[in-house]
Write a structure and sequence with these properties.
It comes from Campylobacter estrildidarum. GO terms for molecular function: peptidyl-prolyl cis-trans isomerase activity. With about 270 residues, this protein is an alpha+beta fold. Helices cover about 55% and strands about 15% of the residues. It has helices spanning about 5-20, 35-40, 40-45, 55-75, 85-110, 115-125, 145-155, 160-175, 195-205, 235-265; strands at about 25, 30-35, 130, 135-140, 185-190, 210, 215, 220-230, 235.
Length: about 270
């Protein structure tokens, strides 16, 4: 078998990494890919994949990216890299990065004993509980009369027929802009999420049933369809182990960095003016 050169391997691998990149815009002859935009906004997206966002959101983010890139190009044309302010800010940024590296090296050197992690979980089990929750849809209208009419229209339906009709009415008549376009879907929520009258009614229902009387809140009158429910449960240690470990690690880091700061201050010649 022929050996492939290291350079060729790197080139092939590089192509493979970018093969799924799609051009989302062209600016002054330069192609802008969805990967570039996604990477730029990754901190803001918090785990969401740019490629799966609705088209209007992708377009808005792409436009922001283009504006940022055009400003950068214009700054370079003005030769601002030689501007004293740029040089000053660059040095400040370098100092900040250096401090971050210093702190990260300390953080990465900290090891937390697994027994200590388990002990923390056992001593704080009440903090690691997933509350009882329900999944529901609702239709919100402004009058009790209209709510009763909708309940009357739905009361003899069950299963898929009820779900489909409920979504249809929600899209057509609900005044809740946040859920209307999703057929009234609210997703999962616990007892602390919604206003009390709504929560009490939703939790009292059986799965697959609707409220037989309108539920009044300060928003209006609701008809609720309870889709599913989950009982209160203890979160497993394996599911939170890493988070506890990181938390304990950070607490130790704060102690170390504070102690280090005090030692450096003690050994420095400081004169307050």
């Amino acid at each position: 078998m022929k050996k492939i050169s290291l350079v060729a391997a790197v080139l092939v691998f590089g192509v493979a990494l970018n093969v799924n990149a799609v051009t989302v815009a062209t600016v002054n002859g330069k192609n802008i890919s969805d990967t570039e935009v996604g990477d730029f906004f990754a901190p803001m997206l918090r785990g969401q994949d740019f490629k799966t966002l609705p088209e209007n959101q992708k377009k808005a983010l792409t436009q922001q990216y283009i504006i940022q890139d055009l400003i950068l190009q214009d700054a370079k044309k003005q030769n601002l890299e030689k501007d004293p302010l740029y040089i000053k800010e660059l040095e400040r940024a370098k100092d900040n990065i250096l401090v971050n590296v210093y702190q990260e090296k300390i953080l990465n050197s900290i090891k937390v004993d697994s027994a200590k992690v388990k002990a923390f979980y056992d001593q704080n089990k009440d903090k690691y509980v997933r509350p009882a929750s329900v999944q529901a849809k609702h239709i919100l209208v402004s009058s009790e009369k209209e709510a009763k009419e909708i309940i009357n229209e739905l009361k003899n339906l069950k299963g898929k027929a009820l779900d489909n009709k409920f979504s249809e009415i929600a899209k057509a008549r609900s005044i809740d802009p946040g859920s209307r376009n999703q057929g009234g879907e609210l997703g999962w929520f616990d007892q602390s999420t919604m206003v009390k009258p709504f929560t009490d009614a939703a939790f009292a229902l059986k799965n697959g049933t609707i409220t037989t009387t309108p539920v009044k809140t300060n928003f209006g009158y609701h008809i609720i369809l309870k889709e599913n429910s989950r009982a209160r449960e203890q979160i497993k240690f394996s599911d939170v182990k890493k988070g506890i470990e990181n938390g304990l690690k950070f607490e130790e880091f704060k102690k170390i960095i504070n102690q280090k700061g005090q030692e450096l201050l003690k050994n420095a010649k400081v004169e307050y003016k």
